Amino acid sequence: MSTRSKLEDKELDQLERFIRETPLEIDLVDRTMNKFESNRYTKQPERSRTHKKMRQRVMMITASAAMVFSLLFVTSLISPTMAATLKEVPILSSIFKFAGDLGLKTADEKGLSTKLHTSVTSEGFTLNVSEVVYDGTRVSIAIERPHIENEKETLQDSISGIDMFINDAPINSFANENSLRHIGYYIKPGKDNDSVIIEFSDLSNQGGRPFPEQFDLTLSTTITGIQNPLIIDIPVITKIEDNVTLQPNVSRQYDNIHFTIEKIQLTPITTNITTRTILTDNSPVAELTMGIDVVDEQGHKLELIGGRGSYESNGSDMIMDHRYTPFESIPKTITLKPYIHLFNEYPKGTFQMDENNKPKIQYIPELEVTIPINS
What we know:
Layout: H1 2-21, H2 28-38, H3 48-76, H4 80-87, H5 102-109, E1 114-122, E2 125-134, E3 139-144, H6 155-158, E4 159-166, E5 169-170, E6 186-189, E7 195-200, E8 214-223, E9 230-237, E10 244-246, E11 250-254, E12 257-266, E13 271-279, E14 290-296, E15 304-312, E16 317-324, E17 333-341, E18 361-363, E19 369-372
Antiparallel strand pairs: 1-2, 2-3, 3-7, 4-5, 4-8, 6-7, 8-9, 10-12, 11-12, 12-13, 13-16, 14-17, 15-16, 17-18, 17-19
Helix pairs in contact: 1-2, 1-3
């Protein structure tokens, strides 16, 4: 019994070798069995029951080999459609893909971001940087933590502070030395409670120095309950080559409002518009609460995603960077439509709301500007 068992095991080892050497065809079992039996020139015919048992084992081995081969083959030839479908699964996709920001989604889909696998752990808490993108107007960094069952505090809530350094220099060394304005950051929701997007921009349109096209960013993140900050070094590089930059310096005047379009920057990720608003009666411009809608020649309106401003003079002069989602393609014209928010008399300082529970606005046609884009 033991001798025959060892013999069968030896033959099965030979079978596995023959299977691996046999080209994949529809009927792998018959072909492999024939090949094996033709090489058994020193063996005697086995009883049918033993032959049947071995044949069943051959089928199992062959099926396993074929399945592995097929998986490798299909993976190597996976179609773009299937790849896109797999990326729709949140676990397999980037944070940018599901962040709700069209520009970041575009960066992920067009390969304009840099994929990273950088992590740091302190006192059992781990942060991982998975993706970064820089288009010359904003830097966005995707950060996540390992999922913790029954964890109620989000990653965004657990971050209590962030310090940043560019090429080992404090980030605010790029700010305007003659201004109290500092380079701040936003913490935006990621794709789930375990991820966030940290985003910041330079103040080059407001008197500061522009960031280099390529730099090393050191991110020092303080987590509530963790004594020491988690420090991660992140390589940042812009992969954007088809930016459009205009400096129209077109002004409009209405009542006490002097409104100027100073700069327009279009990238596949961000539309950045720099404006200057001056109240000629020297009243505080902060009380104006003015916004701007941006549309192309077909009426497509961009979504506002952020912005930062700084005051000059006595507070009646403000320069502002407004950041919007990108255009799908370079438009022929861009129209800026300034508006003001409407407030209730009581309670004072509260917005008037429309039927969709959104703040009511009132456009100021006298300040509207249309800029042609020479693509």
